[in-house]
């Protein structure tokens, strides 16, 4: 019995110091890179549109530099202090709006490279072509989610536009009070409107895809205390801005940084952009 106990103690010790890397990785603090994409189109290289081959170059360069994608759930658990198996260079890929190009261009590349990404959809735009850029539909969303590489999360139900406020200033509708017949919304009416939009978006995504909606990207990066309060009440645990920078333990989960993956960036350029914030 004593010999068996000794063997168990030695075995436990060896596992603790050599065979259980996730314990070390979960306690060591990491700088987490969160990339922001929007649209993809051949021959276009703008701040929000990336050519397919440029996208591939960016992602392959990051993989070769040691970056590994993690999911939003891994990030949420890590920021909440839970034990998480984190790679040395964690990478979160976010794609805003839910354009058809996310499905036809980005998804096949991500699946081929075995990289996780989260697409933040404007829910009321599924399967429609507002303006001139088409959006993927729910069947296409289900296909992507079923692959295991794509998650779908909240970018509001239809609050992705700007309004003119009572003082004549243009503001994103998520943070601006509407004016109807010359009368401005009350604080209570404003809060109820935001609650209804975010609640409806969450309910529709969960009903269509069967996944948990617990993260949000702010349209135009605009937010205020009311938006944060409503979103957290609805169960959102992570919320992203458009402020550039890395994510670190101790950061507010409601004001997370993202680095824009500019369409003009080569893979090497994007790597330099990320490393700029690591110093």
Order of helices and strands: HHEEEHEHEHEHEEEEEHEHEEEH
At the first level of CATH, the class is: Alpha Beta
- How does the overall form come out from the CA principal axes? globular
Mean pLDDT: 90
Largest sheet geometry = 7 strands, mixed
The residue ranges in which pLDDT falls below 50 over 5 or more consecutive positions are: 1-26
CATH topology name, in short, is TIM Barrel
Strand content: 15-25%
Domain NodB homology: 89-279
GO molecular function, one term: hydrolase activity, acting on carbon-nitrogen (but not peptide) bonds
Main location: secreted
GO cellular component, one term: extracellular region
Short note summarizing the structure:
This protein is an alpha/beta fold and 279 residues long. It has helices at residues 2-19, 21-27, 52-64, 72-79, 100-113, 138-146, 187-209, 225-233, 267-276, and strands spanning 31-37, 39-40, 49-50, 67-69, 89-97, 117-121, 150-154, 162-164, 170-172, 179-180, 183-184, 215-217, 238-240, 247-248, 259-260.
Descriptive notes:
With 279 residues, the chain is α/β, with parallel strands linked by helices. Helices cover 40% and strands 19% of the residues. The strands form five sheets. Strands 1, 4, 5, 6, 7, 14 and 15 form a seven-stranded mixed β-sheet that branches. The model is unreliable at 1-26 (pLDDT under 50). Keywords: Signal. Residues 89-279 form the NodB homology domain.
């Amino acid at each position: 019995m004593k010999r068996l106990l000794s063997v168990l103690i030695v075995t436990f010790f060896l596992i603790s110091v050599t065979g259980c890397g996730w314990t070390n990785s979960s306690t060591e603090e990491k700088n987490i890179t969160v990339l922001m994409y929007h649209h993809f189109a051949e021959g276009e290289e703008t701040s929000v549109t990336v050519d397919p081959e440029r996208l591939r170059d960016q992602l392959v360069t990051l993989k070769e530099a040691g970056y590994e994608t993690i999911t939003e759930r891994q990030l949420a658990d890590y920021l909440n202090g839970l034990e998480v198996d984190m790679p040395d260079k964690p990478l979160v890929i976010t794609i805003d709006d839910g354009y058809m190009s996310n499905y036809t261009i980005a998804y096949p590349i991500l699946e081929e490279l075995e990289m996780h990404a989260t697409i933040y959809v404007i829910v009321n735009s599924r399967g429609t072509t507002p303006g001139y850029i088409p959006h993927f539909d729910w069947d296409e969303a289900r296909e992507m989610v079923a692959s295991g590489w794509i998650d779908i999360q909240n970018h509001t139900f239809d609050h992705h536009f700007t309004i003119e406020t009572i003082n004549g200033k243009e503001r994103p509708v998520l943070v601006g009070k509407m004016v109807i017949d010359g009368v401005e919304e009350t604080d209570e009416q404003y809060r109820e409107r935001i609650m209804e939009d975010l609640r409806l978006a969450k309910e529709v995504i969960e009903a269509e895809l069967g996944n948990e909606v617990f993260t949000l990207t702010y349209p135009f990066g605009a937010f205020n205390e009311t938006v944060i309060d409503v979103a957290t009440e609805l169960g959102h645990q992570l919320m992203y801005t458009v402020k550039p920078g890395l994510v670190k333990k101790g950061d507010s989960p409601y004001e997370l940084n993202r680095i824009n993956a500019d369409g003009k960036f080569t893979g090497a350029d994007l790597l330099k952009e990320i490393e700029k914030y690591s110093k």
